[in-house]
Design goal:
Blueprint (H helix, E strand, L loop, with lengths): L2 H10 L5 E5 L6 H16 L3 E6 L17 E2 L4 H10 L2 E5 L11 H4 L6 E5 L10 E4 L6 H11 L8 H14 L10 H12 L7 H6 L4 H12 L2 E3 L4 E6 L1 H6 L22 E8 L4 E8 L5 H8 L3 E2 L3 E6 L3 H13 L4
Parallel strand pairs: 1-2, 1-4, 2-3, 4-5, 5-6, 8-9
Antiparallel strand pairs: 7-8, 9-10, 10-12, 11-12
Helix pairs in contact: 2-5, 2-6, 5-6, 6-7
């Protein structure tokens, strides 16, 4: 964030305002961590913030401070639309194109309040008054920490704010294993731990509270895994029938795609999840090294993300989507 942007943001926050904070659809740990971290920070500045999520979030994030105060657009579209119209400032966090909010995009496009985008994905759209976009960061939560520091308000970071930001840094760094986990990341996390963040308990809350059905679904997913060794690729598929069979709830498939990358010699992994309610196949891509899944997702599956982690979708059947994927993989250099 440059000096002009910092000055503009300071002016926007100089007097109490009604402020909406918005994550992307299907919010993950970084999306909720950044929005809730900013929420608690803005409360300390005497603003009236409200986190408005396009749709609901997974149960394994429901322990986060003030997650019970999140308003879900899909649950009451009319009321939420009125709340958005009343807001004097809009923060969009962890996404850089309004279509990432799904149907809520139609409302956001009508708002006249200034937007502040804070995000670490590639190729941001031009919809915000302030755009703090930097792909060198591994998480939006780290960028929220930086933003608080830019505003010279670091002393306001308490255990509640730190807990939210720690959660997003932990999840988006792959538990501190991904390449963008720099020394600065560890230094920030050390500050959070010194504030009292329960760094030994949070991973358990996030990753070790499995239901029996979720573990059964994971087993089926691993049974469905296919490996294409000559192209250093693996993929997993889950049909709507299989999701029903194991009583799928939001969040149950989180992280499953990463199992493909644990196979020796595999560089590119994908998971295809059928969603008949939305009429799409939801796709997640992961890679190791230099293979750019962001470009692959944007080019072939109406998606995007990061070099090593991206998402996409297909309007075709699950079987046809997988066939197309196999054909694409056979004709690219991985």
């Amino acid at each position: 964030m440059n000096n002009n942007q910092i000055n503009t943001l300071q002016s926007l926050l100089a007097s109490p305002k009604k402020i909406a904070i918005i994550p992307h659809r299907n919010p993950d740990g970084d999306a909720l961590g950044s929005t809730l971290g900013l929420y608690h920070f803005l409360l300390k500045l005497n603003h009236e913030p409200i986190v408005i999520a396009p749709n609901d979030f997974p149960d394994f994030l429901a322990w986060m401070p003030a997650s019970d105060k999140i308003v879900v657009y899909e649950n009451n579209k009319a009321t939420t639309t009125e709340l958005l119209k009343e807001c004097e400032l809009i923060f969009t966090l962890d996404f850089n194109a309004l279509h990432r909010t799904g149907e809520m995009e139609n409302v956001l496009k009508t708002l006249t309040a200034p937007f502040v985008m804070i995000d670490h994905h590639q190729m941001p759209d031009d919809f915000a008054t302030i755009t703090y976009s930097d792909t060198s960061f591994g998480s939006t939560c780290q960028m929220i920490y930086n933003t608080i520091c830019f505003l010279n308000k670091k002393e306001l970071i308490d255990i509640t704010i730190a807990t939210c930001l720690y959660t997003g840094i932990l999840t988006d760094s792959g538990s501190f294993r991904f390449p963008k986990t720099t020394g600065d990341v560890h230094r920030i996390v050390a500050e959070f731990i010194d504030l009292g963040v329960k760094n030994t308990e949070i991973p358990t809350l996030l990753f070790d509270n499995n239901s029996y059905d979720r573990l059964q679904l994971l087993g089926r997913a691993l049974q469905n895994m296919k490996v294409i060794p000559e192209h250093k690729t693996s993929y997993i598929s889950l049909s709507q029938k299989e999701l029903y069979e194991f009583h799928y709830v939001k969040g149950d498939t989180e992280g499953i795609v990463n199992y493909g990358l644990t196979i020796k010699g595999i560089v590119f992994a994908a998971i295809f999840i059928e969603n008949k309610d939305e009429g799409i196949v939801k796709i997640s891509f992961r890679s190791q090294g230099d293979f750019d899944v962001n470009e692959f997702a944007r080019t072939h599956f109406s998606g995007g993300g990061h070099i090593n982690a991206a998402g996409g979708k297909s309007m075709d059947t699950l079987a046809n989507t997988i066939t197309r994927f196999e054909e694409l993989v056979a004709n690219i250099n991985i």
